[in-house]
Amino acid sequence: MRDNCADPARHPLPWLALAVLLAYLNAFSGSFQFDDYKVIVDNPAVHSWDAWFAELGHGIRPLLKFSYTFDWTLGLGIAGFHLTNLLIHLTNVWLVLRLCETFIPNNPLANSTRLPLCKRGRACEGAEGDFCFRATSKSPLTPLFASWATNRPSLPTPIQRGEYPATTQFMANGQSGFIEQQLLRERLRAVPLFAALLFAVHPAHTEAVTYICGRSASLMTLFYLGGLLAYAEGRIRENNFMLYMATPLLFVLALSVKETAVTFPLALLIWELCLRKRRGAWKTAFKAQWTSWAVLLCGALYFLFNDSYLSQMERSAEFNAPQGNLATQLTAFAWLMRQWALPLWLNIDPDLPLLRDLSESLLPLVFFGSIFALMLACWRKRPWLGFALAWAILHLLPLHLFLPRLDIANERQLYLAGWPLFLALAAELALRLDARSFRIACIALLFALGSLTLLRNQVYVDEIALWEDTARKSPHKARVHNNLGYAYKLAGRTGDARREFILALRLDPKHAKARHNIDQMEKAP
To answer: For 174-320, where are the alpha helices, taking DSSP H only?
Structure first.
């Protein structure tokens, strides 16, 4: 008999912690970088609790600043910041695992015949309870439950989530069929763990974990995914506290970390519609989600009447015309999806063009159209893919169409946007490969991505290493060369610093910081 204690799928937390530790062990050698100085090191508002309380209600992102103040006053130096980031990441990995475990048993991925479960848990036709689906023979998992769908027995006990009829019912339809079905179930049971491990070690997440200021993305994601999990559990268990108290509270906390969490109610809607395809789903969804939509309304009013947020939105609105911003964001979407799929050219400051007309982004437009069409095509037949693509589109595109970013794209956007893509990848591999090939593919992918993460962490060891790497990947961006020059200047390499400042001015003659830096060097004795 197999020892269940050694089964990672049954005891996932130690394996998740080990994966995070191995992938980010060398992250503790990283230094403060880039915006860390403006946001933390040179920002007195996060250096004491009195300063934090004094700014409360005036500045932006109070909970994020709370976390910075906690680390600063803790007295552990930069190691304390790295430790907090790592713990946040580990918590998010666990949340991804739980969401995947919740998604699979209540989706056609695990119930290919889409038999409904009533509120008492019994299989029934046209049940009024949660997660009711119509029967279909097109699902890739149909053979797993075909015999049960055709000759459904009377069940004396409720079927709980993740459980199936007694073994004897399968045996009646053939010993070999039962064995094959059990093997497929075993592979599906590993999908949530594999998806969470991929999330844990993907190198694109280094910008949200190793880079201290990337905490704005990871901490917001913690409350965002926590709210989604609370909602999902509340719907399954019909728990009003989870639905109407915990979910909106976690949404408020996410907003207090980063304002881009405003997409949360739409994320709930995507989750709901993906798992509930029966009529009246919209009405049911709004009834379960109205508190989150109310929080969104209150948050929008707060942002509009807060001078700090309002000034940022005004600057953002003046950044580009609507058509140009659409073209720019389509290019950013395509670039971010490539960074997720092929993380070989990670870049903290990518040189993406600011476009003015949609005709300048025809290829990204075709790419987005293809992704959108694939999402619609997969919505019923392969819902894990439809959900993953809908989630990625929601979190990478719509918000920035209305509020353009000064930095067109950065990889930490993938931290929240990408986790369902890992679920879809794991599910597809489990369905298409035999058990041995699936294990080999899992190990190979985790090893490759973990190795890339370790290599990427080394880039954050100091400012010179980071900006030299960035200059190789964005050689025509003036800000990159100015930042590299400043890093050289701090290290006493004045000749190299002067060269980079001159190059920055050559690329952008109006670059004020490069002009100031070179003037300061000329005035120095």
So the answer is: 175-189, 191-201, 206-209, 215-237, 240-241, 247-257, 264-275, 281-305, 307-317
